[in-house]
Every structure is written in structure tokens, then in C-alpha cells.
Amino acid sequence: MRDHVDGSSSPRIAIPAAGFARARRAVRAVLPASLLLAILVAPCVAPTTALAIDPTCLDLPATPDNYAAPALPPHFLNPTFANWDSTPIDNPLTDDGATLGRVLFYDKHLSRNDTVSCSSCHRQENAFSDPDRFSTGFEGGLTGRNSMSIVESRFYKPNRFFWDHRAVGLEGQALMPIQNEVEMGMTLPDLVAKLSALPYYGPLFTRAFGDPQVTSDRIAKAIAQFGRSMLSYRSKYDVGMAQATTNEVDFPNFTAEENLGKRLFLDGTNQCRKCHMKSGTAENPNYAIFTQDTPTNNGLDAALDNADDGIGGVTGNTAENGVFKAPTMRNILLTAPYMHDGRFATIEDVLDFYASGIQPHPNLNRILTLGDGSPRRITFTPEQRRALVAFFGTLTDDELISDPKFSDPFCDGSPVIATAQVVLGPSSIGTACPATRSFAVVVADGQGDATSVTGQVSLGGTSLGTIELVPGNAPPGVTLAPGQVFVGTAQFAPTTTGTLSISWVAHDGGGNQSAAFEQSIPVVAMAPSWIGPISTVPAPAVAGGMLAVEAPVSDDCGVLGATFEMDRGRGIRRAASLRDNGRLADPVAADGRYSGRFRLVVPTAGPRDARVVVRNRKRQVTLGSTASIPVEAPAATAN
């Protein structure tokens, strides 16, 4: 972990500060209080039981990932490495323990103001180191040292950590940055109380330790387990090693330049191997671990006392001044800048230093001194330097830096569009007004933190432009996931047949945006308008009696009025006007429902043709529904 001005190290995370409040609200919204309480205090459950965690903010598999028993290649499996393994007896690596450690490692709640976490200074894409020379603490302060990679910390025989070796084991290292005034600013009692109040930790601690109790000792053990699980064994070098079974020969999967670089690195005259790849034993040689097994002084400075004396600054022993723990060479091209203070920005700067910059410090490692005590100069030709860098590239483990089980399990703080529905509306009435057809879009933001939603819309390949949705309520019959709902409408030509393509993006107030929610729906050209079927009450009608008529009418352009016409035996003629009796149930497609009551003057019984006619605001007529209405003759009366 990274080191601060006072030598402490700090881990960081990237979770939205409001994410956990949203998680609690979401859980409470869908679970009754009694069930929620049961989940939070649940007894130990089997490892295959799904976690009671809100998936919108914490994405963990129901069955834990494999951390405890990875399929290591043969060159990692020999007694030498078992002797170097620093895993303590009281904290064995387990899948559930490392899963809890992963959540803690990425949880910003470990800092006083919920802004940094372990991952803030140990980034997966940089092999769990910090690309910044000094790391930034919870209030913007800077550490005094660069954050060292955590990878392969398990195989470090001294089992002491930080550049100055002040922490015993990864368990000791885990809690120091949390309590550091610059890095995370917490006290352990505050940390325990804070994490105990978060709903997702009860199930996680239960699975890792048997009950939901949160303690600082358990926090340290879980983070340490996650750190020890970070092994780099899937690089190009490891593939070649498995093929060749020894690194003393050229690897068949290497280029000529990479094999040259490997030979230069392993050549004892160049000193690289002596420090960065201890040989193990003759029976069990080291073909896998690229790190020093003891701290050293590599001649960064000449003076005995400096602003940062490393281990000597902790122990007070001047014989240890300028002595620092060395990081692994694995993934070295990803872990710049280099040295404890990040003074070298590139690997080429490091090669320059060993060629001409080693200083005659009194504690300089003897491997880096000549017979007269002066610093050694380790020089290479330009071709050799390129070959060395090419070999360093074979130590990059692309699978490690992209492995989901080592990634941030929390949502990224951006809004999430949970689902969307498009509701098509009717067409307008021919040429009575601008020919348009409406549709409504209803979008649900599953996290509830969106402030707006915008969409790019096209129909049949023709862009309809950008449409902005506003907060609202889903219309009846539209079921969406929990969260904020945004609604909006747009229009297009009703005569178009094609595919309506929509890409919606949600935005929040902090400049974040969701991933695009894309949807395509087929659109079929519609008739200009529709008029619902005529209904009559009572039916059949009686000649000379009263007839009640109603018909629903939809017209996007605005209806002026409707009339009811009926054949009284000499052809269809106007009977009377219908009145608008209110909106229809469909808020998208509706205009109104027209009805009226009329006295029929029909001389004889029999079927009669009838229809409803609608006039729009331009007084153009649209034929509507037609019906055949049976008419009965009136009952005979006595003289």
C-alpha cells in the first residue's frame, strides 16, 4: 500500500458517496422491515447462498470467486515458495474472506469523508500501484512516498511491509492507512461503528467469519486475504516457462529480442538477477518470484542521513539508513513511477540510473559496489536496453489487471437506466394539420440519482434529433423497475414504416452519465385517424322512441365536433350533433368521447345504417364508424 509523509500507507476506492444511501433506500423499498432485519442478523449460510445485497450498488457472485486455490503453474509449486509464503496460521486464505476483503478494499466508507479507499492508491490497471508519484488523501493531502504494488505480497519471506518495513504482515499493514491523518483519517472504533451500520457487511462477515460481527481484527484479516490472493502467474513469461520448464534456455513463445533481454537479466555479470530474482536452491530453483527477499540500499542518495531514511528512520539504526523494501518486477512496465519516492518517471530513467547514477551511500548494497568500494556502473548498449525493456514487457499479466474478481464490485456513481418502454400514439387526421404521430418514452433510473434523461432518436434511418425526458409518473399499465421515472413525447410522420431506434442516456448533477440504453421497435404506417365503434342504448331502438349514441374519437389535430347520421328510409341524413363528454382513458391516443340522446322518427321497423362524422378545426370532415342499427316498430294500440 502507498506510504504517506509519516510513512503510513493508504488504500482508496471508487464508490459514489451516495451509493450506499441509495442501497439502503432500495433495500427498504422492496423488503419488509422484519425480513430486512432477518437478513442483517442472519446466521452463517452456505457459500452457495446468494448474498442479500442490493445489486445496483454491489455486484458479487452468489458463489464466491476462487481466491484460495488458483491453478498455479508448476514453476510456482516448489518447497522454496512454501518457505517464502507469509500466510499466517490464524488467517488462512479463503474465498469468502477474500471476497469480504475485496469489498473493504474498494469501499470509500473506510475513509472519514467517504472519498478514498485502498483502491484509490492501488489501482488494478496499474498492477495495484499508483501512477501518481504521491497519492492523495481524503482531504487532498499528499503522501510522502509512492504506492508500491501489492502483487505477490504473499511470497515475501520477511513478512514486513511498507517501504520501511514498519508493518508486520499484511494484517498489520491494512489498518495503518485507515488511521493515518493524511490518508483516510479514521479511528478504529469509528470504523467499526460505521461499517456495522452498512447493510451489506452483515452477510459478508457472516460468510467469512461465521457471524455478522464487525471488528478491526476481522477487517485487517479480510483485506490481507484479498492482498495475498493477488498473484501474477499468467504473463507471457509464465507461458514460456511452462513450455521450457527452465528459464535458462530461450522460450519458444518469445521473440529474439525478448529472449535476448531475458538472457541479459539472468546473466550474473549484470547483477539484475542477483537482486530481483533470488535463485532459491539447486533442488528447487526460483523461476517465478521477481523480487528481493530482503530490503536493500541501491544508492539513490550519497549522504548517510536524508529526509527519508527508510528502515533506518523507523529503527533508528544508521546501518539501515537508506534501506528500503523492493517491489516485485512483475508488471514493472505498469507500475511507474519508480523508487520509494517516485523520482524516476520511466523504466528508461531507471536504466540510466543504474548506468551512471548510483551514489556511494555508506550502506550501499555490496552487489552494487566495486572492489574499491565505489559504485558499480551497469551499462547496456541501445540494442540491449531495448531487449531488456522487451523482456520486462513479458512480465505483464494482462489477465490479472482485467480479472473481474479483483475489480471494483461497487457501482461507479453514474446513473443507471434500469428499463424503458416506448408507447406509440395514433396518427393525425390526414392533411387536416401537420401530419404527425406521437410516441411517449418512459425511462426508469434504477439508482434514483438522475437529474435528466436525453435520447437520440431515428426512424427508418432518419434522425429525429435529441429528445429530453423530464421526471414524471409512468402511465397506467407501464411497469418499470424501482427508481426515478422520466417521461417525454416526440412526433414523426404517421405514414412512415420502419424501425424506431432510440438510445437514451441518464445524467446526474455531478457530470456523470449512464451507459446508453438502446431500444428498437418496428413502426407500421397508420390510417389518418380512428373513431371507436358506435354504441347505442337501448338496443334495438324503437321507432319514434329515444336513442342514446356514443362514440370515442381520437384526433391529434383537435376535434371541433362530431355528428350522428342515420338512414331514415330515404338515405343517410344528419340527425343531430354529439357532445364531447370528456377525455378517453388513453392519455397518448385520446381526444374525447362524444355522445348524445335523440328521438327517432322512423316510420317502419328494420335495420338502419348509421355513422359518426368528425370535423376538425379546419372544418374538414373525416368519416368515422358506421353501424347497422336495428329498429323495431312500435307496439300496436287499440282503437
What overall geometry do the principal axes of the alpha carbons give? elongated
Number of strands: 18
Assembly status: single chain
Q: The biggest beta sheet, please?
A: 9 strands, mixed
Explain what you see.
With 639 residues, the chain is of the alpha+beta class. The protein contains 16 helices and 18 strands. Strands 10, 11, 12, 13, 14, 15, 16, 17 and 18 form a 9-stranded mixed β-sheet that branches. Strand 5 and strand 6 form a beta hairpin. The relative contact order is 0.10.
Features:
nine-stranded mixed beta sheet; seven-stranded antiparallel beta sheet; alpha+beta; 639 residues
Per-chain topology:
Blueprint lengths: L18 H12 L2 H8 L38 H6 L10 H12 L11 H4 L38 E2 L5 E2 H11 L8 H9 L4 H9 L6 H13 L7 H9 L11 H11 L5 H5 L34 H5 L31 H11 L24 H12 L4 H5 L14 E11 L9 E9 L6 E8 L2 E10 L12 E9 L5 E10 L9 E7 L6 E2 L3 E3 L3 E2 L3 E9 L4 E9 L4 E9 L11 E8 L6 E11 L4 E12 L7
Characterize this entry briefly:
The chain has helices at residues 19-30, 33-40, 79-84, 95-106, 118-121, 169-179, 188-196, 201-209, 216-228, 236-244, 256-266, 272-276, 311-315, 347-357, 382-393, 398-402, and strands at residues 160-161, 167-168, 417-427, 437-445, 452-459, 462-471, 484-492, 498-507, 517-523, 530-531, 535-537, 541-542, 546-554, 559-567, 572-580, 592-599, 606-616, 621-632.
